[in-house]
Amino acid sequence: MSEIYLTVKDLQVESCNVSTTYLTNAFPTAALIGLIDNFRYQLSQSNHDWANDIVEGSKSKAFAIVKTYSENAGKKGISAYAKVGGAAHKKTPTTELQIAEATGNLSATLVFALEVDEDFDDDIALRKAFSRFMKRARFAGGRILPLDETQIDIATSLDKLKERLAYERGWCATPAYELFDAEASEIGAFEAMQSFAFTFKKVIKEKTIWYRKHPGWLFFTLQGYQFLESPAERAGVRGGYPHVLTEPVISLNQLKYFRESELENLFWCWKEHPDALELVACNA
Q: Which member of 112, 138, 155, 253 lies 3.0 to 4.6 Å from 160 by CB, making a disulfide possible if both were Cys?
């Protein structure tokens, strides 16, 4: 088996859904895996013979070189009605439930890794199929601005991928949970989150200084899902997949400058546990 790499340079997205939990908003890293998995599913439904050379059941891997990223913390009004007086036909006047929504705009270069058979030689056909897919795809629900053919490329080895990305600049998300675990073991999980997320004040010679306890571009983000029950088949579930109720798992990540990072260590993939699903770093 070998890996082949698809790249989308300088992708621009408007109004995508950010990775949101009750404690965090962040760049939607998990959407990278969802995008390439969607492409793989569509290939599996096609009549392309070469699509069979993509190893079934292999993990999809991806990472992003983020150029710009901004969040829009808006609100969406939803009409709500309530019955009164015990009569079904009587309802209160329309009220507005304000539900916070966080969306973002971004530009980034996306990199995907697919595992293929050793004798795979249809990289041109794969690139064309991926190009067609990207022209109608969405990223984390956001609108992808029109792409030029030259923005989409393919590399048949890690060395060739490094050549393709030689002039890229930007920031990549990498795991930093070991820093958090060390801090949490000393002062507790909640206090550790405060120490990484908050800025602190001190006064030196009557001058107020705001500082962070930990250096670097550190941030908390959605890192997976903890199951609250066993997966089960339920009516109305699309695709016949097992359904499960979950709660978010939050972890600490760090932004690192792309040119100072090891390319093969930047990829993310899903890791399955008996009672959880986790987004982890995985080597190319």
A: 155
Q: Where are the domains of the chain?
A: 2-72+101-173, 174-253+273-279
CB–CB of 127/25 below 8 Å?
Answer: no
CA atoms within 13 A on the CB side of 100: 10
Does residue 239 surpass a pLDDT of 80?
Answer: no
CA atoms of 235 and 267, how far apart (whole Å):
35
Is the pLDDT reported for residue 221 higher than 50?
yes
Note whether 51 and 44 are within 8 A (CB). Answer: yes
pLDDT tens for each residue of 164-194: 999 999 999 999 999 989 988 988 888 888 8
Listed residue (40, 45, 42) closest to 58, CA to CA: 40
- pTM of this prediction? 0.84
Which architecture, in CATH terms, is 2-72+101-173?
2-Layer Sandwich (3.30)
Record the tokens describing residue 236, joined without a space: 């109305």
Gyration radius of the chain over CA positions = 22
What is the pLDDT confidence band of residue 100, given thresholds at 50, 70 and 90?
Answer: low
Q: How far apart are CA 126 and CA 133, in angstroms?
A: 10
